[in-house]
């Protein structure tokens, strides 16, 4: 059954309305990222039945359930590994992974670098809100220097991860970054990632107003969103001299796009050659 | 429909049994003494349009297996103790989400890195209780290469029938033993597929209670857009923390196995009817025990054997019956005493059950078992 929604984008066509109201905090940027994702799905004319959303644990992990698609809320840090199995078994599905900065870069860091290296046709959307929100606001690998969290009461002293540089170095064939302030740009970036054949990594800069912003006097949601600029939060990364861990500017848009053989296709081609050889 | 005879090592028989059972996806990570299973699968699966992948670790391996199974493939991984420990979280996820999959654990000496190339039976309790929380599990424990082949097939069938992870647990000795295996013709192999949901109704509940307590599964891509989560969930698949739903949901997955014990349990007895001393043993140790029973019977000493083939759920009825009839129960095992705890629980009388253990990476010999059994027969 083909269930492609035509006409102008109405987010309600893609949500499980019976689950509303959602449980994200007022001002959370994840809703904007969710909207951008569904907008991209709509504009590409994807069949909801062929869309699989795999998420991990944390605030980002709970976003997937609201999508009217095949949704898999898996274990902490492992959505890319689950998605790898799902995509290899079902190449006909569009598989998108929704993950967070803790899920993807801390507990799931190993899976990220190998997913980048392998280049299976997955789209990974990492919602970066710089904090472990679900567990009450602990420091994450992307928490800016000097920020106060429940586990850095004197301010964070650990250098910040640049997820896009990590993905690029690990071999991702598509890497992009966008801010939730620029929802249409984020939508377009997600569309480009979906269209790209191979592993696509997107960092969406989100905001945690309730647990992170409040503690650090970053203002309410409007202030936090307005402070997102395309030359992202330079103060967050400290001294420029500390490159590469603290780049002074975080570029946005498509950062990497390269042709590399898509792993699933390569595997199936080799298997077919092997089967042919045996038949002869 | 004629079967053929093949000379196979245990791990290879496991892989071939899996393919015969319909396994079309394998994700794994190299670990001694199980690696031959992955190596065989990497050759066999492309031939049958299946997929093999070596993942970055055992956590990812089981995650990929569960992901493939959610997509509809029969899927398996294979490992040994350290890797099995890493798999525990996703094993619980498979149990909670009722995703069929097969996990092979070839036991080596532990704990920790232990003795990678030496046999042991140290994971008997981990196989039952390794992941956190109350959870259902099925564990089968073959004792020969032939049985590795047939039990691997049965493991897939049980996983599909009851929508649960099934563990195939055997020791390094049978893993590397080369024995004759009767390989049935393909059409003679009975395979079971999970119940797939049909239709596209809007109010489909992926975890709705059915008569047999096993819910039907929605195949992605066909119109039923289900939600799957490791969170405690309602019949509609969405999370809940309401006590009335929570207890019902967990109780059903536990009952799902318990109610079908008769179909899941499998064991073998030898001369246990009139035995004064009954031996309860699994795997390679049970084969040593078999020899001990034969030798002792030849001497006129009444000793018998009960060998669980399904280890979990434990064959409680059979063990109770055998223990009730015998004067003493002997539990030889290649660990510091795990199986013995379960037997003691069922045998009732204090002091009736005696263990015989080796933790030095060497198998227990028939002579050792016979000597202990003789001692117990003589002990009034």
Q: How would you portray this structure in words?
A:
The complex is a heterodimer of chains A (280) and B (380). Chain A has helices at 30-43, 79-89, 101-107, 109-118, 163-170, 183-195, 209-213, 221-226, 263-279, and strands at 51-55, 70-73, 94-100, 123-128, 131-132, 138-139, 174-179, 200-205, 253-257. By secondary structure, chain A is an alpha/beta fold. Chain A has a single domain (11-279), classed as Rossmann fold (3-Layer(aba) Sandwich). In chain A, β7, α6 (183-195) and β8 (200-205) form a beta-alpha-beta unit. Chain A starts with 29 loop residues before the first helix and ends with a helix. Mean pLDDT of chain A is 91; it is low at 233-248. The N and C termini of chain B lie far apart (55 Å). In chain B, α1 packs parallel to α2 and α1 (10-21) packs parallel to α7. The relative contact order of chain B is 0.12. The interface between A and B is large, with 40 and 44 residues.
